[in-house]
Amino acid sequence: MGFISVLFWLVVTAVVVLLLVTGFFMHVTRRISRQAEKLVPAAGKRITVDGHDVHYVESGQGRPILMIHGLGGHLHHMRRPLMEQFGEDYRLIAIDRPGSGYSTRPRGDGRLSQQADFIAHFIDAMKLDRPLIVGHSLGGAIALATALRHPGKISGLALISPLTHHYSEVPPEFAPLHIPNPLLRRLIANTVAVPTSARNAPRTLDFVFGPQKPPADFAVAGGALAGMRPSHIYATSTDLVALRHDLKEFEARYDELDLPIGIFFGDKDRVLNYRRHGLSMRDKVAGLDLEIAEGIGHMPQYAVTGQVVAFIRRIAGRAFQRDPASA
Prior knowledge:
Helices cover 45% and strands 13% of the residues. The protein is an alpha/beta fold. The longest helix has 38 residues, at 2-39.
């Protein structure tokens, strides 16, 4: 009896400690999230797509250009400085993808086919006339999937540092986000993920932006703090896990693409290898416009904004000349 009694109290003590630690991290997470929402509030417009709230910003007038951010990102990755320096002669729209930033997450596991269908439904809801799609990183894979599943809804693709090929193993830098179990994913998102992300922010930014430095005002004016929220972390992990489903299937169909496509890559990209995800596409996409920027990392829209603007305008000119619909 004595041994059983001691074991019982050890278990009780362990459970109490676990609950206290969990409660502490949940408190810290809520505090960081509230501060993030105060410093970087939802400042764009909203529209309902498939019964869910989508947050977006827009500027300019003319033929539409729809901008899709990458894994763990938000519309600010496209808004500033890219949209700000672009000019007003196109209608520029940047969205928070489902679950990211201030958009809510629809049902589903986030696989590329679902995200491509969401983009098509967003185009319909906004009544956009065959926009050019600009996709960065994972947004590039989503843009490609949209072009394959809904070719009649878009005019062309301008892809910035795009994910184009599957990987057999999760890169070590992304391993902490690869949480296949949804319940565990939600638990981690609401406890340790946000404080851990805040602590590791300098290393993460160096990996994503390197060899360049992020803007000095990236946290607030650049909107980065919008990602310091459980819903955003959960969506990021969901997107990463979902890539195992159908990226390889889309990859095998790139030769079906029949629209103007451009790819812009930095040759010092630490996140995605420009040879595997950029140069290899020359043999798969007819008429590909491929531009490689020397010494530039994964975020060229920050590092060489003017060059990226010129690239998007070049692809837009080809796309809309081929599809001369009225604005």
